[in-house]
Fold:
Amino acid sequence: MSHNTYKIRDLFRIGGEAEFLVLHKDGIIVDSYFIARAPVRGFEKMLIGKNPIFAIEAAMRICGICHSAHGINAAEAIENALGIFPPLNGVILREIVGLLNRIQSHILHLALITPDLVKPELKMDAIRREVDLLGMISNVLAKFGGAPSHPPNIVIGGVESMPKQRYIDDSVKTLQQFKQKFGELMEFFENENNWSERAKILAETEFRPKLLASHLYYGDQTNIDLNKIRTVSVEEFRGNNSIPKEAKGTTTLIALYGDEPVEVGPRARLALFWGFNDRSLIGVQRARMREITMGIERILRLIDELDPTEPTKTTAVVFRRGKGISVFEAPRGLLIHYAEINAEGRISFYKIVVPTMFNIPIMEIASRGIPVECADVIPRLYDPCIPCATHLVEVR
Structure:
């Protein structure tokens, strides 16, 4: 093994702080380790003993990027435990808010990965256009969710209120303008003459992991087997003795499906529910960008289904003992919240399984066979969210 060397690469332009340890032979990656040592934020433990209403506010703040997804998941897990259902307007508005958050996250990620995908002289103009689009979609989210981040309109029983008609009309115009501008940006990225050498390598590298998704736009636990989902430590997954000392001490858990790694996220959703068949590594990003266009089209259709004469939330909420599970397709993929409520109407157990926990082993496997100079782009391609995935701490 003397011809192999380990190399630590700090990861930049991702959601949080992490390192990527790669083992390479003759400049080609043989194996890698995704390492995150973020301190435990403790959201799941913090919720114990709290009022379920607080749980939505708190769980949403596990992340500043996929905030709405966590809020919707928390609300639905609690509703599932209590046996209540939002009215149709509430369901539609939640889907709109969730899709706006998905698009918001995808655009932010696009700005972060653009320097990897296009020629250096083209990146700043593209990023300026992406920042403009991010502002547009955030403004629409504020109108439907109550804020561009951690939207307060997500409540137990549905959504707090219907947006004013002028807000809806303004949003439709903004979304149509967004669609046109993003379409022009899509053409720019699809032109291979604009690609960097890294993008060409991603396009030439085939990667066919098993895929897992529950729904194209929202979330449906009937499309997956929750009993197959298992969370384990990195040591349990890899074998403690086989992990190099530089990779030990990571605070993330890994999520498996049927004891196997599975890719979750845009490509999984589009491949399983839409017929998307690009299995190159750059296909992950192509799927993410296709979801932006599809999300805008879906939101415009959903807005037409809103009925301003009908309620947006269920007002008769009785807190009692119960267990609930919610499955939602967050920007990065399958997100699951488990909630238990005791006889006093307080939370007695809470667990969150986030998409990055599924994609950590996928990132490591996807890097194998890639030139070491491209090592850092592989995790960035999967848009890992470190705070969401932080669940372990070593207690001495």
The longest strand covers residues 322-330. The chain has one domain: 4-389. The beta strands are 4-11, 18-25, 28-35, 154-155, 158-159, 229-233, 253-257, 322-330, 333-341, 347-353.
